[in-house]
Specification:
nine-stranded mixed sheet, about 450 residues, globular, 11 strands, two-stranded antiparallel sheet, alpha/beta
Length: about 450
């Protein structure tokens, strides 16, 4: 237990430092003064529980139909256990399984002034509009006023605007290529170290009538994952920060077209199902868990589920180096905090107090340990973690993440709601056959308009 815990602490500290610089731009761009006027009276929770009956709304995204999802069980457990211990508080949950639909619904609700009392959202560019509109409250006094919460909390610059913290990340997510060890072994395949080796694997699997990679790009953010990997390996992390945070990079620069060409090359080799651009997320995942596909590019929010489904057959690798490129598979990872808990700044104080109590309960050592021991990667630290209960892939992820020197947040988050969505639609349209240069020229026009307005 000690060994894994120490690795987790080392990584989280490195991770905080890595993202400090790139998060500053997002922090400085928000106007926190609007927030203070709306929530000054709500910075401190009630000193003692109230007997007043109160109902709070709690929003998050999860696939409740997925019986293998421990996150679903964990969320339901938190709700039921909390209400049992706090009979005066009723929690009404709103859960959407589709993350794009969830983002649309919560953005629309907050824009109309209907802010959930507590919800799981995002950091960086997606959080910024919530802060600017005064919809969510600063949590610094809450964190600093509760020793246990402060002890587990890992600050991150992408959650800080105007010097104040507006969200507490639950998940530590990284995107990887999951693979089926049994399929690799049966086909005499080793984990690729270069892009050339990855292409050879795709060709070999196709020749053996095995689908190389599961991919469901009906929700277009899925197909952007390979693009982000490829872009880093070609251009390196500095170019990513120019575009996603400084907004000085241009989508019309040659590195973007080159990354799209490589992205298309993988698809044209037959790596994905024929209908991948319209295939549902869960249908694609089922291809991997059922053994029909050898690899699955996806985030570690699926780590626990995949571990249950595949057992010891589950492995992972970071996208390999591209010969002549500036990025590194060892040092560069798409990694970030996610599932940031936020509290409404617009709710009545009794609802805010109840939401804050529920927030603290979710980040109690008991609840964190329960979730982490299922095999999930968590952003908080200093809670009990039993290595014997973890899937080998989880243990290996903690080890490899300790080598991270450049952690990048999935692009559609720091780019913000508008430009981030357009990036995902851009990659989807490129898969569908649209001209690469025309697509990126149009994307840059949208980015110029959006960023000029800030």
């Amino acid at each position: 237990m000690k060994r894994i815990t120490s690795i987790l602490i080392v990584f989280t500290l490195i991770f905080v430092m890595l993202l400090a610089a790139c998060g500053e731009n997002a922090s400085e761009s928000a106007n926190a003064d609007k927030q203070e006027g709306n929530a000054a009276a709500a910075q401190k929770p009630a000193e003692k529980p109230s007997d007043k009956k109160v109902t709070i709304s709690y929003w998050y995204t999860a696939n409740e139909a997925d019986e293998a999802s421990y996150f679903v069980k964990w969320c339901n457990g938190s709700i039921s256990k909390f209400m049992e211990a706090n009979p005066n508080i009723t929690i009404e949950k709103t859960v959407l399984s589709n993350s794009d639909q969830y983002q649309t619904k919560i953005n629309a609700s907050i824009a109309s002034g209907e802010v959930p009392d507590i919800f799981q959202g995002w950091l960086a560019g997606r959080m910024e509009p919530f802060v600017k509109s005064g919809s969510i409250m600063a949590l610094d006094d809450i964190i600093n006023g509760d020793p246990e919460l402060k002890n587990v909390f890992v600050p991150i610059k992408t959650g800080i605007f105007g010097g104040k913290t507006y969200g507490i990340g639950l998940m530590l997510t990284t995107e990887v290529y999951f693979y089926n060890k049994e399929i690799f072994k049966n086909n005499n395949i080793e984990v690729p170290k270069t892009y050339t080796e990855l292409k050879d694997i795709i060709v070999k699997l196709k020749a053996n009538n095995i689908l190389p990679m599961a991919m469901g790009n009906k929700d277009p953010w899925v197909g952007t994952l390979p693009f982000m990997f490829i872009f880093d390996r070609i251009a390196g992390p500095a170019k990513y920060e120019e575009t996603c945070f400084a907004h000085t990079g241009k989508f019309t620069e040659p590195e973007y077209a080159k990354a799209a060409e490589v992205m298309l090359e993988i698809a044209n080799l037959g790596a994905y199902p024929d209908n991948f651009n319209t295939l549902d997320y869960n249908e694609a995942k089922a291809m991997f868990t059922s053994g029909k596909a050898a690899m699955y590019p996806m985030g570690t929010w699926e780590l626990q589920n995949l571990g249950v489904e595949l057992g010891d057959k589950l492995g992972f690798f970071n996208f390999p180096d591209i010969e002549g490129g500036k990025g590194s598979a060892v040092e560069d990872w798409i990694a970030s905090q996610d599932n940031a808990f936020c509290v409404s700044a617009k709710a009545p104080k009794d609802e805010q107090d109840a939401a804050i109590r529920f927030l603290k309960y979710n980040f109690s050592k008991e609840r964190l340990s329960d979730y982490a021991n299922s095999g999930a990667l968590l952003a908080p630290r200093n809670f009990p973690l039993d290595e014997s209960k973890l899937h080998p892939a989880t243990v290996e992820l903690y080890r490899q993440l300790a080598n991270v020197k450049h952690g990048s947040i999935p692009w559609d988050n720091p780019l913000g709601t508008v430009v981030g969505k357009e990036l995902n639609l851009a990659t989807q349209s490129i898969y569908a056959g649209k001209n690469i240069n025309e697509v990126f020229t149009n994307l840059q026009k949208i980015a110029d308009q959006e960023w000029a307005a800030k």
